TrEMBL record, chain B:
Belongs to the ParA family. MinD subfamily. NCBIfam families: minD_bact. Residues 5-225 form the CobQ/CobB/MinD/ParA nucleotide binding domain. ATPase required for the correct placement of the division site. Cell division inhibitors MinC and MinD act in concert to form an inhibitor capable of blocking formation of the polar Z ring septums. Rapidly oscillates between the poles of the cell to destabilize FtsZ filaments that have formed before they mature into polar Z rings. The keyword Ligase does not apply. Pfam families: CbiA. This is Septum site-determining protein MinD. Interacts with MinC and FtsZ.
Length: 92, 270
């Protein structure tokens, strides 16, 4: 497999992977400066928790916030685990 | 008018000390008075790379604290009389370097020499910031490797904000020195190319120093590569870089051994 894949697979050159990764990373590091990055996530986490807490009681640990950066767009992923009994009461 | 040059990188092990010694010796061989200053307090190595480790009596901290005069701490190179070294302290704490003391020593060095070349410690802490603070020019030593490029980008940011020039609203003259470059691997796209690194960091290119056995051989015997193996490829790259620092306009190329197919293949015209 590895022999054949070495011949036939059109893998991306590692140097262009390196260049792309660096360009994406540095574009954010230059803008964010020192600790801007983790500050943004912390702030988002805090405010999202406040909004949710107004309506339902959710455990701090059940809220996951992730950021995934691409060259074209970045994705902010917010994952809130809602307690079982509440999902039944919706719309009441 | 003396020029203060800092050789810096952020990341360790990319060739700051090697490049300081090689550029210093290259500039000194052109007849200019050069001092190389080791700012890596506690981990000094410039003395060893320059072959002066057994001649160190006083060091930068002794001079900063007024325990020794500058002339007592300077070591004149035995092979090149226009080249001197000011070693760092190996035993003292780096907090012993005060901003005022360093400023005083730098002023005194500016009067004595044409070039004051400061070998920065790795990192972005106080030692690195003191080494760059008085710089008019900076050589950013970078390997074609992701972590080195990232750290160089960070250092460029510091040069634009934490130096005396930046505080006065001026710019430190920044130059990229790409070291440990392997043109064959770059051609196979296994290594970031010169163009890739230049595009990412966007500062002018001072030189490309190819990966070479001569660099280790020279440090083994305690001589800058531009003194120990002046015709070697890395030495030629450093000599050309030194001429560019002196203001000459020279085309940058990847130095190659012979003129032939490979020469044609790897020749650059940027």
């Amino acid at each position: 497999m590895s022999f054949l894949s070495n011949i036939f697979a059109r893998r991306q050159q590692s140097s262009s992977v390196a260049k792309d990764r660096l360009q994406i990373l540095l574009a954010h590091e230059r803008g964010a400066g020192e600790a801007g990055e983790s500050d943004l996530i912390r702030q988002l986490h805090k405010e999202i928790m406040e909004v949710i807490a107004r309506h339902v009681a959710v455990d701090q640990d059940k809220v996951q916030i992730k950021v995934d950066r691409g060259s074209g767009c970045s994705m902010l992923e917010i994952d809130v685990e809602v307690p079982q009994e509440l999902s039944g009461k919706r719309g009441s | 008018m003396a020029k203060v040059l800092v050789v810096t990188s952020g990341k360790g092990g990319v060739g700051k000390t090697t490049s300081t010694a090689a550029l210093g010796a290259a500039l000194a061989q052109s007849g200019q008075n050069v001092v190389v200053v080791d700012f890596d307090v506690g981990l000094r190595n410039l003395d060893l790379v320059m072959g002066a480790e057994r001649r160190v009596v006083f060091d930068l901290i002794n001079v900063v604290q007024g325990d020794a005069r500058l002339s007592q701490a300077l070591i004149r190179d035995k092979r090149c009389e226009t080249l001197s070294i000011l070693p760092a302290s190996q035993t003292r704490d780096k907090d012993a370097l005060t901003s005022e003391g360093v400023a005083r020593v730098m002023d005194e060095l500016r009067e004595k020499f044409d070039w004051v070349i400061c070998d920065s410690p790795a990192g972005i802490e106080r030692g690195a910031q003191l080494a760059m603070y008085h710089a008019d020019m900076a050589v950013i030593v970078t390997n074609p490797e992701v972590s080195s490029v990232r750290d160089s980008d960070r250092i460029i940011g510091l040069l634009d904000s934490k130096t005396q020039k930046a505080e006065r609203g001026e710019k430190v003259d920044k130059h990229l020195l790409l070291t440990r470059y392997d043109p064959a691997r770059a051609a196979r796209k296994e290594m970031l190319s010169v163009e890739d690194v230049l595009e990412i960091l966007s500062i002018p290119l001072l030189g490309i120093v190819p990966e070479s056995e001569d660099v280790l051989k020279s440090s083994n015997v305690g001589a800058p590569v531009t003194l120990a193996a002046p015709t070697s490829l890395p030495a030629r790259a450093y000599f050309e870089a030194a001429r560019r620092l002196s203001g000459e306009k020279l085309e940058v190329s990847v130095p190659v051994e012979k003129r032939g197919f490979f020469d044609w293949l790897f020749k650059r015209d940027a």
